[in-house]
Structures are given as C-alpha cells and as structure tokens.
Design goal:
Chains A, B: It holds the Pfam family cNMP_binding. 2 copies of one chain form a homodimer. By secondary structure, chain A is an alpha+beta fold. Chain A has 2 domains: 6-117, Jelly Rolls (Sandwich); 120-198, Arc Repressor Mutant, subunit A (Orthogonal Bundle), CATH 1.10.10.10. Chain A contains 6 helices and 8 strands; from the N terminus they run βββββαααβααββα. In chain A, strands 1, 2, 3, 4 and 5 form a 5-stranded antiparallel sheet that branches. Chain A has a 3-stranded antiparallel sheet with strand order 6-8-7. In chain A, a hairpin with a 2-residue loop joins β7 (178-182) and β8. In chain A, α4 crosses α5 (162-174). The longest helix of chain A is centred in the middle third of the chain and has 27 residues, at 93-119. Chain A is globular, with a radius of gyration of 18 Å. Chain A starts with 5 loop residues before the first strand and ends with a helix. The structure holds a DNA duplex (30 and 30 nucleotides).
DNA sequence: CGCAGCCTTGATATTTGTCAAACAGAGTGG
DNA sequence: CCACTCTGTTTGACAAATATCAAGGCTGCG
C-alpha cells in the first residue's frame, strides 16, 4: 500500500490537534498510546478509550463529535489530511467496509466499557483493565506488561479514584494474581484468576 | 425508496431474534422502543443504549458482537435479511457512507453514556436521562414525555438501583424541575434547571 | 541535597446499595 | 362491585462500597 500520510510525534501529555492548519485529519497509531477523553465543566474527567499501536484514530464522520485525544506516553502516528483520505477511500470501496468493521469493533469495546462502568465493582474494574492490557499487548503469559497509564489515568478510565485503583491493584498483588515490578509494569501470574476477578 | 423489508412486531419484553431462520438481519424501528442490553453471568444487567423510532438496529458487521435487543414496550420494526441488505448497500455506495455516519453518531452517544456512568452522580444521571428522553422525543416544553422504561430499566441504563432512581426522580419533582403525572410519564417544568441538574 | 510527581496506606465521611414494608393501579374472578 | 393478586413504585432504616482527607514514601532530577 502506498504511503500517503506524514509521520507525527506526540510527547506524553500533548493533545492531538484535529484542525492542524486547515483541515481535519485521521491517522493510525504506530507506537505509544493515546487516550480519548471527555470531561465535565467542573473538572471531572473520563477516559473513553485507549488507542494502542495499530489502531485507527480519527474523526471519520464530519458529524461525529470530536473528542480530545491525548498522548499517554510518547507516541508516533501516521496522519492524513481528511480530504485526501476521503478520496482514497472513495477509490477503494473495500477500505470503507473495513473501516465500518473497525468502527463496530470500537463500538463493541465501548459497550463492554459501559457494562464495566455501570455494573462492575472496583476490584472487577481494575482486573478487567489489566486483563485488557495483557490481551491487547499480546505479551505471553508471565511477561511484563507495560502500563501506558498512571494510576490517575486508570482511575479516569475506570470511573474510580486514584486511591481505590491503588488499593485494588495491591489487593490483586497480595492475592498472587499479578506482580508489580514497578508502578508502570505488571506481570500476570495467574491469568485464569485474573479473568475470574475481572468478570463476575 | 423501494421497500425491501418485512414488518415485524415485538411485544414488550420480547427479545429480538437475530438468527431468524437462517441468517442474521438488520432493521429500522418504526414505533415503540428497544433496549440494547448486556449482562454479567451473575445477573447484573446493563442497558447499553435505547433504540427509538427512526433509529437503525442491527449487527452491521459480521465481526461485531451481537448484543441482546429487547422491546421495552410494544414495538414494530422493519427488518431485512442481512444478505439482501448487503447487496443493496453494495449497489448504493452513498448508503454505506450514511451507515458509517450513523455508526459514529451511535458511538458518540455511547461515549456520552460512558462519561455519565463513570463520572456523574446519581442525581445527574437521572436528570440526564430525562433530558435525553425529552430531547429525543421532540416533545415541546411543558408536554408530557412518555417514559418507555420502568424504574428498574432506568436503573439498568444508569448503573443505579431502582430505589436510587426513584429517590432522585422524586427529588427532581420536589425541586419543581419536573412533574410526574404517572410513573410512565414526565413533564419538564424547567428545562434549564434540568440541564443544570444533568450536567455539573 | 531537596524538590516534584506519583504511589501507597490509613482514618473518616459520604454516597449509594440492601433489606423491608407499605402503597397504587391494572387486571381477574367471584 | 368487590376482594385479590400481581407488578411496579415509593419510602425508611441500615449496611457496605467507595470517596475524601491526610500523611508518608519512593524515584528521578536539577
């Protein structure tokens, strides 16, 4: 596939500029991790989803609301101008179908997260997050998972507070389900136990 | 536009059959209200979204997870076989684009709901729901809004319990923000106050 | 060293859930 | 027409989960 985008780098904490100079863009994450966020006017914050390498990022529909996209860690992504991308899609109907699939996969993840936020306990939420990160990062059982989020960001993703995340994560450690070599890494010791802790 | 679907009726409480006889289907809601639900194995339930008249319903992507769709009240919808629908879409590229837009609108609503579930208080949640129903049903200010949900279903949508929904709804009534002529109807007395109660 | 940011832990407060009871309306059958 | 029951709602007292407040620790860095 011909490359049509340009590479862009984001330092941790930087927010992606949708309207770069003139026109909205879309892109693909190459390395790092982005967080899609929303917030209330009094400062309460919710992370709606994570973008990990390989994932698509962008405002595909002109009508869709633009959410804030911020780099959780230093990241590089490949961005296209929206207009040029639209032409390209127009010439490749297959691609539009693939995008539709991608959109629905994202929707499915959004729905899982709604179940998590609406009905899971604090312990189940942090176990679910660790499990998701373990599965999406494709690290083999027993390997160290890099956590692209601080405790505070995990809290904003899970609808909890920093302190509760910290307590529940150490509870999983005490139970022997995970090990925490350092605050930004985790090792799943017993994936089955983690799955049980995550669900119900 | 030529009609290609058949009409199907669902009584309140009935679950939509995805695999009718042979093949998955998609459709459009004509009258009534559907709830898209997910649940945990121990019975905890979460309503992920509402389908109101005019909305699209279906599993567009073969890869997307199929969620349970149940009629909240007696409903009628127009359904197509997936295969025939796919052909039709293939012949009308415009349509696929419209569907993509629709999917992103739904995603945006899903994200609003995540913010609600993760970060809003109980009172803000029920106010948000009443506001959404008022706005989506297009009833003028002061008119009676038909609530297509029981208190229990509202609770499952908002990630609360029946009792909490009941208490917060009567609190809004006591504040003069809404009136409750009967449990299945509501009148917004002060939309601005409701908006304030819903947000932050 | 000493600061700054992030993490952990503890004590306490607040919100929301749980359990229980009573109430209201709709349908049903005597 | 009147019990009677069934389902959904409201309300109260209490319990449990999580948030808040506060302190202290660790690590990296100027």
């Amino acid at each position: 596939m011909k490359r049509l985008g340009r590479t862009e780098r984001l330092r941790a904490g930087q927010t992606f500029r949708w309207e770069d100079d003139e026109v909205a863009v879309v892109g693909t994450l190459r390395v790092g991790a982005l967080k899609i966020g929303a917030s209330l006017s009094d400062g309460r914050e919710q992370i709606l989803g994570l973008v990990l390498p390989g994932d698509f990022v962008g405002r595909l529909s002109a009508t869709g609301a633009a959410h804030r996209v911020t780099a959780a860690v230093d990241s590089t992504l490949c961005v296209f101008r929206r207009s040029r991308f639209a032409d390209f899609v127009h010439c490749n109907p297959e691609l539009e179908h693939a995008l539709l699939d991608r959109a629905f996969a994202e929707l499915a993840r959004a729905r899982d997260r709604m179940l998590l936020l609406g009905r899971k306990t604090a312990g189940e939420r942090v176990a679910s997050l660790l499990l998701e990160l373990a599965e999406r990062s494709g690290i083999p059982h027993g390997g160290r998972i890099a956590l692209p989020l601080t405790r505070g960001e995990m809290a904003d993703l899970l609808g909890l507070t920093i302190e509760t995340v910290s307590r529940k994560i150490t509870a999983l450690q005490r139970a022997g389900t995970v090990a925490l070599p350092d605050p930004r890494g985790a090792i799943v010791r017993d994936r089955e136990a983690l799955r049980i802790a995550a669900f119900a």
